[in-house]
Amino acid sequence: MSVLVAARNAMLTGWIKSESPALPPAFVGAATRAAAKACKSTSNKVIELAAHGFSNGDLVVFTAIVGGTGLQVARPYNVAGVTTNTFELTFDEAEAWSTELTAGTEIAKVTEVTGGAYARVASSYTAAKKGATTDSTSHSLSIPASTTVNYITNHTLITVGSMVVLDSIEPEAFTLAGTLADTTGKVDMNGSA
After folding, report:
1. What are the φ and ψ backbone dihedral angles of 39, each rounded to 5 degrees?
2. Is 36 exposed, middle or buried (0-12, 13-18, 19+ CB in 10 A)?
3. Average pLDDT over all residues of the chain
4. In this predicted structure, what is the pLDDT of residue 64?
5. Dihedral of the CA atoms 181, 187, 57, 54 (nearest 10)?
6. If you average pLDDT over residues 12-19, what whole number do you get?
7. Which residues belong to CATH 2.40.30 in the chain?
8. Are β-strands 147-156 and 105-112 bridged in parallel, bridged antiparallel, or unpaired?
9. With pLDDT > 70 as the criterion, what percentage of the chain qualifies?
10. How far apart are CA 81 and CA 91, in angstroms?
11. Which residues of 65-92 are buried (b: 16+ CB within 10 A; e: fewer)?
12. Residues 115, 30: contact at Cβ < 8 Å?
């Protein structure tokens, strides 16, 4: 999905598809991703990455997965159990991770965009248990200068703004302050536009 830099106050209209949204989103935002780093895991599902710099609670995504059955590329995971050279991931009860990660796996930290005039934009979504969940709210996501946006985020009000979905987009670099606009009008919670 492509994005473009438009005049400040351009509209971002997201159409969000989901088979079963667990929590209705309340805010739309943007996030940026650090460079990916190679990692692997041990027999007890502890990920090894020398001097990773992560803290408990950080948000990470896999950019490539080798092994790691049950893990997904571009799906957000929270970091836990941090030591200098290892960390673990948090999971929902229903999730399973059945095989270890091997060479070729890469992971990156994700950070919500902040600063400048940026703020999450309040949204109003239809409440659908299945099928399409639509947001037709007029959005103006102002992005600070020197920022590369890799993701559109959706947050829930129920859990005090916790991120409920992170949707990958083609990275767009903002050399000057600008506005993120969705040129297709589609954001897919299942990972494909």
Report:
1. -150, 170
2. middle
3. 74
4. 93
5. -70
6. 40
7. 37-110
8. unpaired
9. 66
10. 13
11. bebbeebeeeebbebeebeeebbbbeee
12. no
Tokens matching residue 97: 């991770």
Q: What is the CB neighbour count within 10 angstroms for residue 180?
A: 26
Class of 37-110 in CATH: mainly beta
SS3 annotation, 8-40: CCCCCCCEEECCCCCCCEEEEEEEEECCCEEEE
DSSP designation for 73: B
Token pair in block for residue 130: 């299945």
Please enumerate in sequence order all residues whose Cβ is within 8 A of that of 22, keeping only pairs 6 or more positions apart, or say none: 164
Residues 27, 162: Cα–Cα separation, whole Å: 10
Q: What confidence tens digit (pLDDT) does each residue in 42-86 have?
A: 877 889 999 999 999 899 999 999 998 888 888 888 899 999 999
Q: CA triplet 152, 143, 38: central angle to 5 degrees? A: 55
